[in-house]
Amino acid sequence: MSSPTATHAATVDYQEVQSRPEFQELKRTHRSFVFPMAVVFLAWYLAYVLLAAFAPQIMAIPVLGNINLGIVLGLAQFLTTFLITAAYVSFSTKALDPKSSAIRHELEAAGVGLPDETPTAADTSEPTPTTPAGGASR
Amino acid sequence: MTAALTSSTPLAALPRLSASGEEEVLSTEVGSPWANIGIFLVFVGVTLFFVLRASKNNNTAADYYAGGRSFSGTQNGTAIAGDYLSAASFLGIVGAIAVYGYDGFLYSIGFLVAWLVALLLVAELLRNTGKFTMADVLSFRLRQQPVRIAAAASTLAVCLFYLLAQMAGAGALVSLLLGIDSHAGQSLIIAVVGALMIVYVFIGGMKGTTWVQIIKAALLIAGSAIMTVWVLALYGFNFSDLLGDAVDRTGQEALLEPGMQYGLDFLTKMDFLSLGIALVLGTAGLPHVLIRFYTVPTAKDARKSVVWAIWLIGAFYLFTLVLGYGAAAMLNQEDILSAPGGQNSAAPLLAYELGGTLLLGVIAAVAFATILAVVAGLTITASASFAHDIYGQVIKKGKIDNKGEVRAARMTVVVVGILAILGGIGAQGQNVAFLVALAFAVAASANLPTILYSLFWKGFTTRGALWSMYGGLGSSILLIAFSPVVWGAETSFFPEVDLALYPLTNPGLVSIPLAFLLGWIGSKTSTVLEDPAKQAEMDIRSLTGVGAEKASEH
């Protein structure tokens, strides 16, 4: 059962860490980016789908040669997806990673490991002597 | 190619089209099944080599389910693209654009935008919190047993629906590409595909599966890129001219605007809306996508994976736009529709039109590789879910060593593989296209609400999770069971009896909001409070990745 608390609770008080200002700051920074962004791209996608379903005549408005508004808006969905992706990468590298790694290093120094690590880690760290994959299955 | 062999080719009767668009009936058949088979065998050989190489180090559960968490972000991103871009997205979307024009393009946008949900809200937090499966994360701070069982049930349901659709599709693809028309012949090929998949996953585990997916993604994207440049070059890289030709050739002005497939009446429009929502919210709840986030050492690599996957998948869907309209501009509609496989044959026919037998062979082999890689990914996900969640954690209560868990996973692979083969043979000729939509709807309603709630809402409880997951899963299946897919319409299983109480063919429009609502009501009415310490731990782990990176060290 994944109860890391049994092994690690003694070393780390998660609720105390959770209430620290630097963790709250990390959480706020993360949510202040991903929540509004998610609302924006979902609304923009939904608007596009509704337009395609219920106002195809708007999509048919010609823009350039045979390229109509529908094609332009569709390609714009691709473009915004790429832009939001790039924006998130740069935001998380600059604003999130330094904050989260500071807390992570501190907790790892205090001995926090994987959740439910106990059986797996023990098994993986000692190289299985003879029968690997194939042998186990027979 | 001897006459005896070619005469069995269903495409043999098709006229070859000249580049000018005039029909010239040639005596040559479209492609040669032997070339297709030959190129496919080369793919099998190469991937088997990688699978065998990968199998040398498959001792632990982390090796078997998560490829030892040894893949780089770029490798994993490519594998995600290989996992995600099914034959339905390649043959299906190109064909849909060629025949229904803009409506085919609409699918691809949903499939792509969906990745932002995974990138922003799910991938990194999930990687930080769990070990192998979605259930690891969902049961983290709630009551283990019931939540794990529910998560495993919906994982297995999604995998099975998706698997069945892929296997049945394999049969249709065979008739299209290899000229095997008979029921027995198609069944044999489904069995071969299934057996190959069992071998890959049984021996190679996640590492082997990942390599198959990487190779397949490279082939699929390179193949479609070559065709795209080729088509564009024929039009002097003027996309507008290509669109104009597509309209001229088909004589359908409407090809460039939405509505040819879904614009019929109010219900079809609502159906499209439902599908669009299920696609965009379902992707980040697809278990075979989620499990891929555990194959990288850190959350940062999980982020890199999704970014790379978005670029590849986005580029690929842009190619399908050109290929779809290219097929409309360079082929006759009647030829596409009368070919075995119907609109799915647009991409292979276009390949033949452009590059003759060799390019058709390559594209055919790529299509097979696509099915193989996707079914392998689904099978390893199902086996991880059963062996790790149900057998290891619920039945054995976590008291199971790595050897035992890997053995259980391998046995599950064989069982799932045999079920997939039997199901695929049974589903042949049935209209199973709805199964993919159903898989997305279940993923969006049974999985995504609970994933988001447990990652972002402190007040979420076990009751909320169970209500949401079972409510989402149950309502999706029930709505399909009482929809025109099953009753009353021409394409239904029972065309004569109209028991379709739900008018749409996609349940998402109802089941997704319902699942979100049930999760909220269930949590609000809970009498048992969840452990705040576990909630704090999950909060911290998900955002910081404490301890999670150590998994890469062995």
From TrEMBL, chain A:
<keyword id="KW-0472">Membrane</keyword>
<keyword id="KW-0812">Transmembrane</keyword>
<protein>
    <recommendedName>
        <fullName>DUF485 domain-containing protein</fullName>
    </recommendedName>
</protein>
<dbReference type="Pfam" id="PF04341">
    <property type="entry name" value="DUF485"/>
</dbReference>
<feature type="region of interest" description="Disordered">
    <location>
        <begin position="111"/>
        <end position="138"/>
    </location>
</feature>
<feature type="transmembrane region" description="Helical">
    <location>
        <begin position="67"/>
        <end position="91"/>
    </location>
</feature>
<feature type="transmembrane region" description="Helical">
    <location>
        <begin position="33"/>
        <end position="55"/>
    </location>
</feature>
<dbReference type="InterPro" id="IPR007436">
    <property type="entry name" value="DUF485"/>
</dbReference>
<keyword id="KW-1133">Transmembrane helix</keyword>
